[in-house]
Amino acid sequence: MSRxxxxxxxxxxxxxxxxxxxxxxxxxxxxxxxxIPAEKDVAVIDLLKSAASENRIYTFPSWDPTSDAPWEQxxxxxxxxxxxxxxxxxxxxxxxxxxxxxxxxxxLTNVLQxxxxxxxxxxxxxxxxxxxxxxxxxxxxxxxxxAIDASYWIWYRFPGDFFVAQTAMNVLGALFAGLAIAKLxxxxx
Length: 189
Known about the structure:
This protein has helices at about 1-25, 40-50, 75-80, 100-125, 130-155, 160-185, and strands at about 55-60, 85-90. The protein has about 190 residues and is mostly helical. The chain has a domain at about 1-35 and about 100-185.
């Protein structure tokens, strides 16, 4: 178990550094995102302040949340068919000004992700070699991206380039972390 914990710490640090590289050095972290044009920014923010009050993901066009099938209701049905459609991740409070708490939470989730990978590797049959263990870690990254990023692309119409970039980040991160995890967390004999 101590080897799995060491693998989780090292793998988590690798995921954390990879995340920093993808956001600060490579363009992957911001692919598919764009700011609202500056001349429209204030008007959109003022409209959101008047229309939204909670930290939520708001969708449009609006629909009746008590309905069993909102996609079959008018006027939602016609407004949805004519577009635009979308969602807005909204927080009424101030933005992040101190990155330290968010970075700590990110590192913690990266270590937990690496711990899950290390525990799976530790459960493998003893005959699975290093390459097989790395491949299992990479498959975990592929599965995670397909479970989350693909659904966002399919159902919420996230941009295709965002989906591709997120998938690349997740799969390569799992591969890089897997190189260390596969070395440190070996299957039990």
